[in-house]
Amino acid sequence: MEKINIAFYSDTYLPAMDGVVNSMLNFKKELERRGHKVYIFTSGDKLSKRRYSQKRVFITTGIKFKPYPQYKIALFPYKSIMNLRDLKIDVVHVQTPFSMGLAGMTIAKLGKYPLVGSFHTMVNDKRIIESYYPKNKTLQKFTSKYLWQYIQFFYRRCDATIVPTDAIDKFIKKSGVQNVHIVPNSIDTRTFNPKVNGSALRRKLRIKKNEKMVLYIGRTSKEKRIEILLQAAKQILKKRKDVKFVIGGTGPAFDYYKNMANKLGLGGNIKFVGFVDQAVLPKMYAACDVFCIPSTFETQGIVALEAMASGKPVVGANYLALKELIKDGKNGEKFKPGDYISCAQKIERVLNNSDKYKYRAVETAKSFAIDKATDKLLEVYQLIINNNNTR
């Protein structure tokens, strides 16, 4: 296809490394490798604006969105309308549905640009509402109802909506959103691969050769259900003392989960390492024996795929995208959502025979490689560009 100019609009960006940011940066890298141009319009604080603004990255100053802290509410999001005209944009791709996303949608409609929307995050999830929105139950109910109505309004006005998995495809179609396309969030299988050596990092974490390491990487927030992993850890450590648990990532519940680990008596068997730099991340996966993701929140689970690409089996909740991604006995094991006993049993099953999962884990990840996902993304772009030209 001809080279095109694409505008990404997002309410979250570096230094946050959530699924939205990972997806954008992976696609940007591959699209530009193929000769297309990608411009990112996003929001951030003054520090991130100074640090991350680049030739094709435009950061609008915003304020922190308290209910979901990695999102920033842009104060003047519509300034970018002039940029789109100058840059000869062919398609607008909104990654989030809030201030920058809404600005991108409005600008696309006014300028008659083809509009793609990605549904990345279950922002109306019950645990999100309970954790981050007003504590008053009536207000939570009100917020949940009208937030979901807004989400439906937003994506129904896109020329195409992108979802990462079959599970989310079925979910969003039930709400009346049309023209939905499955384009998985991609991973870089060159960066994350089973040849990466994690032995030096294990030594740094003080994990011995004869010990096993269970890893979680992601936001330390309540919707991620990290308490299930902590309670499972307690069950496992009753039977064996050779297992260490590592929690990587930051978030609003970081101290909450550290305190919970102390109350459960996990002591030196668990380490909270905080933010994991992108350069260190492949070694972190390589260092572990099993990756655990207890969340019932995932629309895809990029971290699970990165772990699989690194040759590591994944133990995850049998729910939404993870239900689709994890194949029992092949690339990992699924446990009953919210059941720490089931989680502990599945972690032990994998630890006792982790090598048998390696091949299928890597093969699963290959199907989500950046080149294949980008092919599908470009098909969607071409479709709506063609449709727009015939109007």
Task: Describe this structure as you would to a colleague.
By secondary structure, the protein is α/β, with parallel strands linked by helices. The protein has two domains: 5-186 and 369-389, Rossmann fold (3-Layer(aba) Sandwich); 199-366, Rossmann fold (3-Layer(aba) Sandwich). Helices cover 43% and strands 18% of the residues. It contains 16 helices and 14 strands. The strands form two sheets. It has an eight-stranded mixed β-sheet with strand order 4-3-2-1-5-6-7-8, sandwiched between helices. Strand 12, helix 12 and strand 13 form a beta-alpha-beta unit. Helix 1 packs across helix 16 (370-389), helix 9 (226-239) packs across helix 14 and helix 12 (302-309) packs across helix 15 (358-366). The mean pLDDT is 91.
Structural class label: alpha/beta
Mean residue pLDDT: 91
Shape: globular
Number of domains: 2
**CATH architecture annotation name of the largest domain:** 3-Layer(aba) Sandwich
CATH superfamily descriptor of the largest domain: Glycogen Phosphorylase B
| Biggest sheet overview | 8 strands, mixed
Helix proportion range: 40-55%
Tell me the Rg in angstroms: 21 Å
Strand fraction equals 15-25%
Runs in which pLDDT lies below 50 for 5 or more consecutive residues are none
Q: Any idea of the CATH topology of the largest domain?
A: Rossmann fold
CATH class of the largest domain: Alpha Beta
Strand order of the largest sheet: 4-3-2-1-5-6-7-8
- Termini separation (Å)? 20 Å
- The number of helical runs is 16
List SSEs in N-to-C order. EHEHEEHEHEHHEHEHEHEHEHEHEHEHHH
